[in-house]
Write a structure and sequence with these properties.
This protein is about 0% helix and about 25% strand. The protein is mainly β. It is built from 1 helix and 13 strands; from the N terminus they run E-E-H-E-E-E-E-E-E-E-E-E-E-E. The radius of gyration is 65 Å and the shape is rod-shaped. The strands form 3 sheets. It has a 6-stranded antiparallel sheet, with no helix packed on it. Strands 6-5-7-8-11 form a 5-stranded mixed sheet, with no helix packed on it. Strands 1-2 form a two-stranded antiparallel ribbon.
């Protein structure tokens, strides 16, 4: 007879396991063939003394993404507004241009007196004749010329004609040997006399040419 671990007595020749434990649904461990005293190798810890030293795994750090500067925008050419066109009338006065040039419309050339052969350009509008740097036609070499101005020669751009008139001085002025009292038209090769100086007129702007 044999007593099981739970205290039941049973015939081991008839039953290989306790019939009482088996009927009760208890877990029964069948004996190993050859007995329960077989020696199984025990699990031994792994010897890591000879294992190579691998570097430890470190957490992956977030790589700092380099900031790539944005490409500069292409330069935009400034928009230059179109200059408004000037409305031109049929005839305009010939004033000093942007380059500082006053268009020449004719000349007075000294033919008698000091500085014979000297020429003076005549520009558009009024040209004063007198003695001093403030006059357009400066006859400072002639002491008989008035400092107040003896005459004015004018180009009329509309009519394309020249005229001579008296100035503010007290001296007499002659046009073609005639005493100048009122404005008179001046034509090519006319002679104008003021003080001790005689001058011949020549036109550049006329019916054949104008600016």
């Amino acid at each position: 007879m044999k007593q099981c671990e739970n205290g039941h007595i049973y015939d081991e020749k008839t039953h290989s396991v306790c019939p009482y434990c088996n009927q009760a649904g208890l877990s029964v461990v069948r004996p190993l063939e050859g007995g329960n005293d077989l020696a199984f190798p025990k699990t031994t810890p792994l010897d890591t003394s000879g294992a190579p030293d691998f570097p430890k795994t470190t957490p992956l750090e977030a790589a700092s993404t380099p900031v790539v500067p944005a490409a500069p925008a292409a330069p935009v050419a400034p928009v230059i507004p179109a200059r408004p066109k000037k409305e031109m009338s049929a005839t305009i006065a010939l004033n000093v241009s942007d380059a500082g040039i006053a268009p020449v419309c004719g000349w007075l050339v000294v033919v008698e007196g000091d500085n014979k052969g000297v020429s003076f350009p005549i520009h558009s509008e009024k040209n004063t004749i007198g003695r001093g740097s403030n006059f357009d036609i400066n006859l400072s070499f002639d002491k008989a010329i008035s400092k107040e101005g003896d005459a004015v020669i004018t180009y009329d751009s509309r009519g394309k004609k020249f005229y001579v008139t008296l100035g503010s001085g007290k001296n007499n002025v002659y046009h073609n040997n005639g005493l100048l009292l009122t404005p008179e038209e001046v034509k090519d090769y006319d002679v104008i006399e003021a003080g001790s100086t005689k001058m011949v007129f020549r036109s550049f702007c006329n019916d054949e040419f104008t600016y």
